[in-house]
Amino acid sequence: MSIIDDMFIVLWGFLLIGLMGIGGFFMFRKFLKQLPKEDGKSTMDWEQYYVDKTKHMWRENERLLLEELVAPVPELFRDVARQSIVGKIGEVALKKEAGIITQEILIEGYILATPKRDHKFLRKKLKEKEIDVTPYEHLFELSRYNYAKNWKSRYEKKIKKNSL
Question: Do the beta carbons of residue 79 and residue 95 sit within 8 Å?
């Protein structure tokens, strides 16, 4: 065999190991969501519970808005993302003892269910739809503190360091 064939086999091996590692990571995340918590139910069990309890509360306008909000998610992961977001929206609706899912509940649940990197898209989409984000600012701010302690002081130090 030539050296080119050997290099091809080595690169092919690394590619396969990398792809299996990525797939394993996503499978492991799903496995962690299925592990029971202290109350005996897993995160996925609770999501399904909230979805089932609030299925009848959705109106057509809110369904369409939700579809617009999850549209940027790759199609392969869209169903999983939708399930997670709808579960959080249902949880918010039940805690507020609402009779229907309103636009406000949908936006609040979406903010709580999605990571901070998705909030920029949400702000843009709400601006396009001429929906005021001011009532939700406390939720955007709240999520900022969930990622790291003292993020603001570390951010300011980094800016100072880069400006020198």
Answer: no
The model's pLDDT over 35-83, given as tens digits with 9 standing for 90+, comes to: 888 888 887 888 889 999 999 899 999 999 999 989 888 888 888 889 8
Q: Phi then psi for 129, rounded to 5 degrees?
A: -85, 5
- Contact (Cβ atoms closer than 8 angstroms) between residue 70 and residue 59: no
Number of other residues whose CB lies within 10 A of the CB of residue 29: 10
DSSP state for residue 129 in the 8-state scheme: T
- Rounded CA-CA distance 7/32 in Å is 37
Quote the pTM value. 0.70
**Which residues does 53 contact at the CB level (< 8 Å), separation at least 6?**
90, 94
**Cα separation of 56 and 164, whole Å?**
58
Q: Of 51, 68, 56, which is closest to residue 131 (Cα–Cα)? A: 68
Q: How many helices (H) and strands (E) does the chain have?
A: 8, 0
